[in-house]
Amino acid sequence: NMALQPEASSPTPPWYDLYSDDITFVVMVAFSSVLALAMRKHLRKRRYVFWKSETSVYPARFLLLLLVVLLVFGGLFNRIRGGWSPFHGHPGDLLRRMLMSSMTALLLYGLGGTPRLTALTVLLCYTGIIEGWGCYFGMARGMPPVPGAHTDCAGEPARRGMFDWFLGVPNEAWTHRQAWLRDFLGMSLRGLVWTGPWGIVTAAGGWGVVLPLSGVCMGLVYELGHDIPSHIPNFSQGTALAEFMWGVWLWWIVTLTLTGTRQFE
C-alpha cells in the first residue's frame, strides 16, 4: 500500500532549495554594509585591554604562550562546532554554532573590540556558519578512485551546497581532479561567506581587510587537514582535523587583525 501512495511534494519550491543560502548571503552583505556606514564612528573606537601604548608592557614569552593557548581553544571550539560534541541535531547544532560565534566575539572583545563590534560579531559570525556547506569539505576524498564517490558526507551525496548552481554536482562522468577542484573552490568561497559580512563591519572599524579576505584560505586549510596524517581521536586526518585547523586559523587572523599594529617589547 505504501508503494501505491504518490510521492510527497517538497514543502519548498526548487528555487528556494537551490538559492536560499545565496540569497541569505547577499542579504547579510547588504545588512553589514548598512551597519558599517551607520555605525562607523562607534566601530572605530578602541579599547586597549592588554596595552595602553604602541609597546606592550608584557613579556614576549607570556604573550607567545597566551597566543598558543588562544589558538588551541579556537581550534577546539570550531571542532565542537563541526560535530565534536554530545549534542546532535537540533538544538545541538544551534548550541555548537552559537558557542563558536560567541567565543570568537569574546576573543575580539578581549583584544580591544568595542561592545557593539562584539555584539555584531556574535550575529554575523553565526550567520556565516549556518549557511549551506554542501559536501565541499570532503575535498573529493570520499572513496577514490570509485567514479562519482567524491564526498565524505556520511552517505549524503545529494546534500546541497550553496554554490552547486555554478560549480556543479559530481556525477559518474566527473574525474577525481574535477571533483577536487570543485570542492576546493567551494570551500574557498564558503570561507568568504563566513568572514565576508562580518569582515565588512570590522573593516569599517578600521581593522583592515585581512579578516574579511581570510576566508578564501578555507579551501587550503581543509586540503591540509586531509593531507596531514593524524590518528588522534576526534582530530583524525580529514574533515575533523581540518575543522580544528580552521578554528586555529580564524582565531589567528582575529588576533593578528586586532594586535598586528602593536609591537611586542
Report on the structure:
This protein has 265 residues and is mainly alpha-helical. It has 10 helices and no strands. It has helices at 14-38, 40-43, 60-82, 92-110, 115-130, 164-167, 176-204, 210-214, 218-227, 239-259. The termini are far apart.
What's the topology here?
Blueprint: H1 14-38, H2 40-43, H3 60-82, H4 92-110, H5 115-130, H6 164-167, H7 176-204, H8 210-214, H9 218-227, H10 239-259
What are its keywords?
single chain, 265 residues, mainly alpha, globular, disordered C terminus
Largest sheet report: none
Structural class: mainly alpha
The share of residues in extended strands comes to under 5%
Secondary structure: helix percent: 55-70%
Termini separation comes to 77 Å
- Low-pLDDT sequence parts: 1-8, 144-151, 261-265
Number of helices: 10
Mean pLDDT: 81
Helix and strand element order = HHHHHHHHHH
What does the radius of gyration come to?
20 Å
Give me the count of strands.
0
Q: What would you call the shape?
A: globular
What is the compact description of this entry?
The protein is built from 10 helices and no strands. The protein has 265 residues and is an all-alpha fold. It is globular, with a radius of gyration of 20 Å.
